[in-house]
Amino acid sequence: MYALTEEGKKYLKGLPEIKLVEILKRENEIKKLKNIVENFNIALMWAKKNGWIKVEKSKVTLSKKPSKYELYDALLMVSNGKKPKKEYVDILIKRGLIKEVREDIEKEAKKFVGKEITNLHPSLIKTGLWRKVKFKKYNVEIPGKPVHPGKIQPYQKFILQVRRKLIELGFREMNGPTIETEFWNFDALFQPQNHPARDWTDTYSLKNPKFGDLPDKKIVEAVKKSHEISWKYEWDEEKAKKLMPRAHDTAISPRYLAQGVEIPGKYFSLVRCYRPDVMDDSHLIEFNQLGGFVIGKEMNLRNLLGLLKMFAEEFGEAKEIRFFPDYYPFTEPSVQLSIKHKKLGWIELAGAGIFRRELTEPLGIKVPVIAWGIGIDRLAMFALNIKDIRKLFSQDLEWLRKFKVL
Amino acid sequence: MMPTIEFSLKDLEKLLGRKVDIEQLKNEGILFVKGEIESEENGALKVDIKDTNRPDLWSVEGIARELKGHYGIEEGLPIFDVKKSGLIVIVDKKVESVRPKTVCAVVKNLKFDDETIKQMIQLQEKVCQTFGRNRDLAAIGVYDYDKIRGPIRYTTFKPRELKFIPLGFDKEMYLDEILNEHPKGQEYGYLLKGKREYPIFIDKEGNVLSMPPIINSNYTGKVDENTKNVFIEVSGHDITHISVALNVIVTALKERGGEIYSVEVVYGKEKIITPDLSPKKTEMGVENCRKILGIDVSGEEMVKLLKKSRFDAKLNRNKIEVYYPSYRNDIMDERDIIEEVAISFGYNDIEPEEPKFYTTGNEREIEKFSNKIREICIGLGIQEVLNFTLTSKEDLINAGNKVKFVEIENPVSSNWCVFRNSLIPGCLRFLSNNKHVEYPQKIFEIGDVLKIDEKRETKTKDERKLSILLTDRVIGYENISSILDSLMRNLGIGYRLKKRNGSERFIEGRCASIIVNEKTVGEIGEIYPEVLEKFELEMPVVALELDLEKLSH
Fold first, then answer.
1. b/e B382-393 (16+ beta carbons within 10 angstroms → b)
2. Cα separations (Å) of B119 from B50, B116, B377?
3. Of all helices (H) and strands (E), which one includes residue A352?
4. A-interface mutation test, from B459, B463, B466, most A Cβ less than 10 A away
5. Exposed e or buried b for every residue in B82-114, given b needs 16+ CB within 10 A?
6. How would you classify residue B458: left for phi > 0, otherwise alpha for psi between -120 and 50, otherwise beta?
């Protein structure tokens, strides 16, 4: 069994030698014919072979007008699934216009001939026999069966977007250990050791391992002095060694300040933090915090407000903003940023301030550091349009599969 | 933490002596006291005061005093007259090992009504709670002065040595009975735990005033609308600290028209006169203030702004001498005064200006690498999940873990008491939560796990991991090994698999170590059926876990 090749299909309307013969009625200059006749060389060769033409110098002349061209008929037969005489088959194969099709494929395809089919079997395409079948009409208006693509977890996607944005804004990412000493989490941030935020009900502590190491003696001594002068109590080194899961992202900043940062410079961290809350629809025991600082000789409150305004526009899409005086043990002045959200009205977006000198000077920093933190989990809830904060770490595969890509 | 104060707009107006526009108060006025109006209903206000170091602002009286400055009613340092009451409080040496310090005062000619009593109790509670660290560092007692005969003794008694009727009760009780049976005894009794004797204020005629920091007596310690004159004591451990609490209370009562009288507190040979309401002094550099705030304000203007915030201030060349009231304990540095200037100026009147210098951002390598992995996993049709890093011991042990975990000392629940040291247990738990969901299920997680590492400063180490889990009715090792192969090819990392033992997590003979550059970077295999049982899983699961830090090097 045979089937047309791509070239063979092209010539179903007529072989090139026939076209040449027809054109010879009005034109016989080889130069011009070359431009008019497609595949001129092939046409010339076969027309000559068939004894239809003569070639004289630069001209072609018709010697015998063909009445019937059996090679062409053979091509048509193949296209109709019939088998022509062997001599023509050989020529057509040689000319690359047809190809042999394996018997089993043909046999397979023939089973479908004259029937109404559902699947378009490859044998039908290869043999061309698809022309002899009917296609069953489907109900095409039924929606497809769902399939599940792999997707980035929605909250993770949001975090990645926030990270990208900060990097675009020129911030360098900082990172610190999940388990911190109280020294870096509290003491280096000028939070007194009897501060209520350091109670066991407000922060986790570790059972195993229990104590970590303190940094360079010079820094420890400077921090101790700063606490004792300003807060007027006896600073306890052992308490500072206690290990705890990081309670806020700000724990990372003093580490970077102590080890040396680029001045001027912009830094951020986006990390998981831990607090002993009872989990419900608005509280998690572990959550992400976004924060950082901008350090520079000229940095001031006005710059801090400018930075916050920019965050309000970038992250909260806010047109209206308000600043509230605020309080943190480690910043002075301190400020809270509230924004008017499109859907939710006024919400708190960020807390910020200029690090106190009692904090920066023991770490060897002599220039102002404006520090900021953004409640990223709340923003994520708005972005994901969820009411229950636990959904950020959804345990529901079906929900994740259905969630539309952010 | 942050005190929320409730009061009526009418009461505030009465104290200010003028009408208050609620919108102005909400948007501007309340900011001067670091407050934010939480709610307002029919003139009843709830206000969050953000400064946990400013107990003087935790009452409507204190708020009114501060606002008077900004509303132009009364500026500069508030002046408090203190007369002598003649009352003596003798502090017995015995209290030293129990609750060593007290400072006292008398306030006369009060006209209490329902509202003012409510306000006084609220202030007392907020100060004890936040500033007094739940009565530990400061506990306040207020008594009907007219029922007391001086001198008062601050001493101790053995639990069965003394009986009195505690506030709100109608029978005499021994001290230990009060601790066990009175609601306040049950609430605050731990502050006296282990003491052989309990602190007592008692007057000349043997009438008990109170057992601090627990409860007043029902006779002297009851203050109502008929009370004209009060005796106030604050007890604690540090004179400076408790003096602030006392000053806050007496100056608040002064705003209600009370007259302050001093008391002589006798510590052995030493006598102190309390309350001490004399102002304190500090300094601020004009140029430093301008530099930190970034606004163009002259020294003279700074003086005006500070006076509005109830300071006295004098410009002395390029410095400002600042006098601040005795109820303030929050001023440690020039910065604290600079903030006062900013608040008085109005944060919202400062034109914001972004920092102008240019920097290039920088992403951590491990985050870049994690994102590559994420892209490949997504391409392989695997859904990303996000689990908590805290988990239960049970889940870690059930997933075939034998090492020591990083463990929380004060967990809220045993479900969240240890840090994961592998992502696989959390992912198994995830699959267990989704047994009813259409199969096949393919999930991955990228996240940090914690290992104990004694060599490090924090004795722990964070490791970034990837885990992939597949589950279906029919699934096997070849399904997960082909995922691994794809992943490694697309990362361009050569690897080999090395036979290993199942070690309780995987089926023996169906698991391997993943080796890159002759180092083990992960594990792969079919989860052991006993593990599946423990996680109540009913379909086979195959899994791999890779250490991304090792892999990215």
1. bbbbbbbbbbbe
2. 19, 5, 62
3. strand A345-355
4. B459
5. beebebbbebeeebeebbbbbbbbbbbebebee
6. alpha
Place B66 in a pLDDT band, splitting at 50, 70 and 90: very high
The pair of structure tokens assigned to B77 is 């340092």
In chain B, positions 441-460, which contact chain A (CB-CB < 8 Å)? 441-443, 448, 450, 452, 454, 456-460
Task: Give the number of beta-carbon pairs within 8 Å between A and B.
Answer: 265
Length of chain A: 406
Q: Residues 25 to 64 of B: which have CB under 8 A from any A CB? A: 27, 31-32, 34, 36, 50-54
Q: What are the tens digits of pLDDT across the range B433-470?
A: 999 999 999 999 999 999 999 999 999 999 999 999 99
| Cα–Cα distance measured from residue B417 to residue A241, given in angstroms and rounded to the nearest whole number | 21
Of the candidates A367, A329, A136, A317, which has an alpha carbon nearest to the alpha carbon of residue A248?
Answer: A329
DSSP H helical segments within A38-181, as ranges? 40-49, 70-79, 86-94, 103-110, 122-127, 154-168
3-state SS string over B319-341?
A: EEEEEECCCCCCCCCHHHHHHHH
Q: Is B129 on the interface with A (CB under 8 A)?
A: no
Q: How many CA atoms lie within 13 A of A81 on its CB side?
A: 17
Q: Which residue among A197, A204, A209 sits closest to B460, beta carbon to beta carbon?
A: A209
CB distance B31 to B69 below 8 Å = no
Q: Each residue of A106-163: pLDDT tens digit?
A: 888 889 999 999 999 888 988 888 999 999 999 999 999 888 999 999 999 999 999 9
Contact A332 B404 (CB under 8 A): no
Contact A301 B457 (CB under 8 A): no
How many whole angstroms separate alpha carbon A335 and alpha carbon A333? 7
Is the model's pLDDT at A102 over the cut of 90?
A: no
**Which residue type sits at A267?**
Y
Q: How far apart (Å, rounded) are the C-alpha atoms in residues B494 and B363?
A: 26
Q: Cβ–Cβ of B407/A326 closer than 8 Å?
A: no
Residues A394, A382: Cα–Cα separation, whole Å: 16
- What is the DSSP secondary-structure string of B26-62? HHTGGGGGTEEEEEEETTEEEEEE--TT-GGGSSHHH
Q: What is the pTM of this model?
A: 0.83
DSSP class per residue in B211-277: ETTTEEBTTTT---TT---EEEEEEES-HHHHHHHHHHHHHHHHHTT-EEEEEEEEETTEEEEE---
Q: Which of B243, B409, B418, B444 to mutate to test the interface with A (most CBs of A within 10 A)?
A: B409
| Pick among A175, A246, A278, A305 to test the B interface (most B CBs inside 10 A) | A305
Q: Give me the sheet containing B280-285, strands edge to edge.
A: B280-285, B319-324, B312-316
Could you tell me the end-to-end alpha-carbon distance of chain A, in angstroms, rounded to an integer? 55
* Residues of chain B contacting residue A400, judged by C-beta atoms under 8 Å apart: 383, 385
Within 327-356 of B, beta carbons closer than 8 Å to A belong to 332-333, 335-336, 338-339, 342-343, 347-348, 350-355
